[in-house]
Amino acid sequence: MKFIKVAGNSLLTALLMISFLATTGAAASKEDLAEKIRLLEIQIQELRELKVQKRATEEKELQCVQVTDNKKMCSCLAEALPQEVTFEQYVHHLVSTKENLKNESPPAVQQAVDASIAARKHCVNRGFLN
Description:
The chain is mostly helical. It is built from 5 helices and no strands. α1 packs across α2 and α2 packs antiparallel against α5 (107-125).
């Protein structure tokens, strides 16, 4: 009888250990799965942002081509301009005098103007404005 009681306790202990390990493994699996889901959600958000950027770049290029009919230059500009600068803003930056823009614009706008001018110089230096 003592053997059965000892064996029973050992069996119960073994079952508890297996149950504990299975639960811990399941918890770890749930944590791993939750982490994988979180990482996938981040990747999905990044892909959405890239898609928005791509659409904005395509829109800039299309507007530029409609005005200039210079596909290579427009492609270069669309890629080189900051995402937040539209083609219309780019044109405004180029036709406005720097002094007027400095006097009327906050620093963020001035940075966009500088980036627009730099993008134009970059594309011109690559030989796309001929």
